[in-house]
Amino acid sequence: MVKLAKYTKPYLLMILLAIVLLFVQANLDLALPDYLSRIVNTGIQQGGVESAVPVAIRQSEMNRLVVFLSTADKESILADYTLVDKSSPDAAKLSAEYPALEKEALYVLNKIDQAEMDRINPIMGKAILTVSGIEQVLADPSKAAKMGGAFGGMDLSKLPAGTDLFAMLGKLPSEKLVQITDAINKKFEALGDKMIIQAAVSPVRAEYTALGMNTGQLQNNYVMNIGAWMLALTLLSVVCTIIVGYLSGKIAAGMARDIRREVFKKVESFSGSEFDKFSTASLITRSTNDVTQIQMVVFMMVRMVFYAPLLGIGGLIKVISKDSPLSWLIGVAVVVLIGLIMIVFSLSLPKFRITQKLVDRINLVARENLSGMMVVRAFNMQEFEESRFDKANLDLTEVSLFINRVMVVMMPMMMLIMNGLSVAIIWYGAHQVAEANMQVGDMMAFLQYAMQIVMSFLMLSMMFIILPRASVSGDRIAEVLETEPKIHDPEQPVKFPAAFNGTVEFRNVSFRYPGAEEDALHEISFTARPGQTTAFIGSTGSGKSTVVNLIPRFYDVTGGAILMDGVDIRAVTQHDLRDKIGYVPQKSALFSGSIESNLLYADENASPEMLRSAIEISQAAEFVASKPEGLAAEISQGGANVSGGQKQRLSIARALVKKPPVYILDDSFSALDFKTDAALRRAFKDKAANSTLMVVTQRVSTVKNAEQIIVLEDGRVVGKGTHHELMETCETYQEIALSQLSKEELS
């Protein structure tokens, strides 16, 4: 996968944009539990009252509160409020909001910053709780036991009826009042600021009721406001998800397209040596199935690999920042999840490597069966081929089942961990709520954060499911892309002479196939001249096709040199070399399309007259004329809808359209009858009289009139000359000739 990272370069801007959007989405998703916590804690439990600092408070109530404040706190808090009464300029507006203003002066909170609000919140909370507790005792003396010792051992239940305790406290010496205040504050230390503020909300709400405020509407407004924010954040998160999905799809598809193009270009540059290394089935699998694996993993990586860590790390930060007593539960779950993922990864990675090789194997068997179906049926080998395919299929199935079993275990285990974590958080969190160590909303938010963290690991686990196979696919693709063709153009190529005539000369040429222990050709020397036919004949495996395949540089010679018009073919570019050659392979190859498109493959600018001439010379005119569509007649894949002889004639016609100075016909008359063979050779000789014609054949009748015949045996030239010369001097040629024709026909 790392080796293919360079293909991300054109999409870096889109990847960066996707990461930014994922960062925004992760933050939006992480903000939602906080809003839920606020709805539960503040909106439901606290009736929409957000803090222990009331927005307005009666003067009489404020006077009670300041009794329990230090001098500095009293001055700062009173500075944060404005005292208003019926004579104040904005009394009419404030009366509508606080009806109690008609009866009593009020303190209205000024606009203060959040830092000041956070500072005075616990201070006001403690004072409000103290005043509220005293008021409850005065209203119900039976609750006095709860205040025991808070006021220097004073028994509040024995106070005379109508006693103004707050006035009495106000008259106490400052030292005594400080002692009482310190004693009260020590009782609040165990609660913590958050619980103090939450506990103080109820008295604040009671104060709002005393002011005549609509507390029900206050609660509804708060819940609706927070709910609207949650909806807006969710919609924004959805928009980010859609955009990231589009970008990830575009990036993945674009990279797959680029990789496929590069693989195809690389394969096109391969010589025979590279094709010996990679089978056709393997190259097909690498350019299709393997590229698809890369496309899928890139899509998942952009969508999940960047998002999951942001969500998981962000969730952990949120949990740690809340200093929750439940944090250890997530730590345990994360350790178990990481261990599970590592085990699955270590088991699956080796199997994924085997899987891709087995896919190659099953493609190879299927391709051989489909291409050789007629042979399979002719020899009644259907059962054997079925068993061969079943073996490849079962091997792939067995490995796939093992991988699937490993992967199937992961999801239930993940769900077990996630559900177990949920139960543990609820159970342990309920005890913390009961002990006043945390609020219900905080527990719910913590539960959501835990689910988000686990979900991030679930996303990563999905990546670990597909990443190993994609990694193997990436290595296989990189193996093709990193393969350097053994045949390449020179750094400073030369040009053929302007007056090119097409003389081909072999000078002591030897050749050995890659990996072979001995040479296939030994010291081959001859010269093929324009206007002449040079024919190669010999027994099967004598090296005839190997000789002519060296001319277009399908392979490079391992010894000696091949020259065209005196120029070593290795000194020119492959394009310039092959531009001079009209090649008809031993196995005729036609492409899906029409007859015309196959002929134009040689020269896309060829005129209709050139096409007709080539068809006539190749003796394909009658066959083409028999088609209702003529040149527009359809050719199926591989030329499956035409006969072997028709394919050979169309292949020869294609080479003729090119009008090259050198023709190479590699056993291209084998499927033709003798009459068509003779007619084709006569027409070829007339129309291409100035070209160099090199023919590989098994037929003596085909080479009988050739100006030069090269007889090969075991990769060596054992005879060279005309038919009559070889009949007198070459025993090998004599044996071949007499095995095909009578002495009368040969004379």
Low-confidence stretches: 148-153
CATH superfamily of the largest domain: ABC transporter type 1, transmembrane domain
Strand content: 5-15%
Query: Which range best describes the helical content: under 10%, 10-25%, 25-40%, 40-55%, 55-70% or over 70%?
Result: 55-70%
Oligomer: single chain
- Overall morphology: rod-shaped
Please work out how many helical segments DSSP would assign.
27
Radius of gyration: 46 Å
The count of DSSP E runs of length 2 or more, i.e. the number of strands, is 15
Question: What is this entry, summarized?
Answer:
The protein is an alpha/beta fold. The strands form 4 sheets. It has a 6-stranded mixed β-sheet with strand order 9-12-13-6-14-15, with helices on both faces. Strands 5-4-7-8 form a 4-stranded antiparallel β-sheet, covered by helices on one side. Strands 1-3-2 form a 3-stranded antiparallel β-sheet.
How does this structure look, described?
With 747 residues, the chain is an alpha/beta fold. The protein has 4 domains: 2-20 and 230-481, ABC transporter type 1, transmembrane domain (ABC transporter transmembrane region fold, Up-down Bundle), CATH 1.20.1560.10; 46-213, no CATH class; 504-580 and 660-746, 3-Layer(aba) Sandwich (Rossmann fold), CATH 3.40.50.300; 591-647, no CATH class. The protein contains 27 helices and 15 strands. The chain has a 6-stranded mixed β-sheet with strand order 9-12-13-6-14-15, with helices on both faces. A 4-stranded antiparallel β-sheet has the order 5-4-7-8, with helices on one face. Helix 11 runs antiparallel to helix 16 (440-481), helix 15 packs antiparallel against helix 16 (440-481) and helix 20 (608-617) crosses helix 22. It is rod-shaped, with a radius of gyration of 46 Å. 34% of the residues are buried. Mean pLDDT is 84; it is low at 148-153.
